[in-house]
């Protein structure tokens, strides 16, 4: 199997799994439906074209939390375009300064097409909502061998330099990974209503998928090599 890796980094992101009335929440990490929707938009797949969406939705999905970010709340006001009447006050939640590595596992030809689409997208990619553009190119690598877990373990740490400074004393950092469960992990997996079936505006549909959480150790490129210090060295110097 092949794997396409993505870097999801921006000032704001919002990955909503549910929206109720005037309250729009965000998950703590990108959702599969949100990432598949971004890829479908880049490839020019229209919202009602479920046949072209189906191969994308069948890709195996995982995400690594490289920089968790901070949850922020924003209040929205609006007026009716015709009557001018005030609309209900709504609140929307975002992740600020977050960075993720997403990975999709599947057949090489499909992933190669999606990789090319991200480099020349039909519709511009956004991080969960149209108001959240990416700060860096989304595509990272297209791997023609290995699996999802290997890619999430081997992809270099994508956190911002200012964030990495907090870990200068560590040669490795432990990062959380959320991924679709293997066959033998189904009993211990959580279920989420996050498997896209249709993005058609009149009847968006999602079904359940499984997810497990684990962690990986990633080399820290900002690790500071501290000089060797042995308190007994001073005793040796005095005795000499």
Structure commentary:
The chain is of the alpha+beta class and 240 residues long. The protein contains six helices and ten strands. A hairpin with a 2-residue loop joins strand 2 (19-20) and strand 3. The longest helix is centred in the middle third of the chain and has 12 residues, at 108-119. The protein is globular. Pfam families: Cas_Cas5d.
In short:
The protein is α+β, with helices and mostly antiparallel strands and 240 residues long.
- Supply the helix-strand structural class: alpha+beta
Number of helices: 6
Euclidean distance between termini CA atoms: 64 Å
Question: Overall pLDDT, averaged?
Answer: 90
Main beta-sheet strand count, sense and barrel state: 10 strands, mixed
Q: Would you identify the regions where 5 or more consecutive residues have pLDDT less than 50? A: none
The coarse silhouette is: globular
User: Could you state the oligomeric state of the chains shown?
Assistant: single chain
Order of helices and strands: EEEHHEEEHEHHEEEH
Radius of gyration: 22 Å
Task: Say how many strands there are.
Answer: 10
Q: Quote the beta fraction.
A: 35-45%
GO molecular function, one term: RNA binding
Keywords: Antiviral defense
Protein name: Type I-E CRISPR-associated protein Cas5/CasD
Organism: Streptomyces spiralis
